[in-house]
Amino acid sequence: MSIEVGSKQQGTVTGITHFGAFVELPGGSTGLVHISEVADTYVKDIKDVLKVGDKVEVKVLNVEKDGKIGLSIKKAKEKEGQQREKSDRPPFRPRGGGPRKGGGSVQPDNFEAKMNRFLKDSEDRLASLRRNTDSKRGGRGAKRG
Question: What is the rounded average pLDDT for all residues in the chain?
Answer without folding.
Answer: 80
